[in-house]
Amino acid sequence: MRRLLAWPAAAAAPDWNDLLGRFAAADRAALEQALFARPAADAAAWTLTLSPSGGTTGPLQLRGEPALDPDGQPQWHCLALASALTTPAPAEEPATVLAPAAAAPAVEADPQRLSVVTRLAGAAARQELELLYQPQLDVAGGSVRAVEALLRWHHPQLGQVAPRAFVPWAEECGLIIELGRWVLQQACRQARRWRDLGVLQVPIAVNVSAVQLQAPDFVAQVEQALTAAGVPAQALELELTETTLLQESEAVRQNLAACRRLGVHIALDDFGTGQTNLARLHRLPLDKLKLDPSFIRNLCIDRGAQAIVRSMVALGHQLGLAVVAEGVEQAQQLVLLDEARCDAYQGHHATPALSADALTRQVQQTHA
């Protein structure tokens, strides 16, 4: 909870209903049941004990009494929550971190983060989400080998919100499951459209997080998206990062293996920036390595970067994997990648991420 909230102890805390929206669905349901499922007439004090995973000397107790809103429903505001989370209370006096609504001002701490998280729920239903597409091109011949789907969020008030500003928080509060399901469905539908047009009959890659991969129904989500769109499993590629591998669990391994058995391609994104164990890399059901842009950025001026890229390409090939260089911006970088026998590349040198219609027109003009 401390990591999720990241609020200074001196700051006023937000409305409790907004706070609930930042938790994963299961945790939110448990808290809502504990806080709001009591009859309105029950004004007795209650205590809810949470056992932290680490960093405190004992369980955190939330204690308070319900206050009623104009409709007779219990309503809570969070009071001094950050202080209670960062400073464990003495064992003989549990920390009182909840108080009736009338006792706490409705002042938000860190309003930008909170507004992003609370408005993200339901963004897909409100048609605020969009997928852009960036092709991965063959280094030697220039043909399209795959297309990566990139999520964008356009909010009426917030404007265009960068993925780095909402994806980490979506993972923390569980909304990444909703977003990920939408991305899978849209990517598969676009693959169907391109096949119907006779263009881009290549895999569409979507990014998946550790939270998604640990979901019990993740494989079912993949199968449903493929079946609904009427495309083969080979039309989909799942991209996971090295950070995801560091959180690898039995559920992640089983889900990846099940997707691979379906025929879905698996790619390791941002390779070279994490701490992937090579023995684990060998055991993973991978089809592709994607080299992080940080290695490509200095490729033309740094012989060390050139040696590293050659080594990573050779390692990928020895493991039977295709290797893709991300972040290619210059023609000379492409020449060096060709010399290193890199298979494919992705970046603004070829094209930035485009809408589906724009990429379709570009491909049709290229092959006209």
TrEMBL record:
<dbReference type="InterPro" id="IPR001633">
    <property type="entry name" value="EAL_dom"/>
</dbReference>
<dbReference type="Pfam" id="PF00563">
    <property type="entry name" value="EAL"/>
</dbReference>
<dbReference type="InterPro" id="IPR035919">
    <property type="entry name" value="EAL_sf"/>
</dbReference>
<protein>
    <recommendedName>
        <fullName>EAL domain-containing protein</fullName>
    </recommendedName>
</protein>
<dbReference type="InterPro" id="IPR050706">
    <property type="entry name" value="Cyclic-di-GMP_PDE-like"/>
</dbReference>
<feature type="domain" description="EAL">
    <location>
        <begin position="113"/>
        <end position="367"/>
    </location>
</feature>
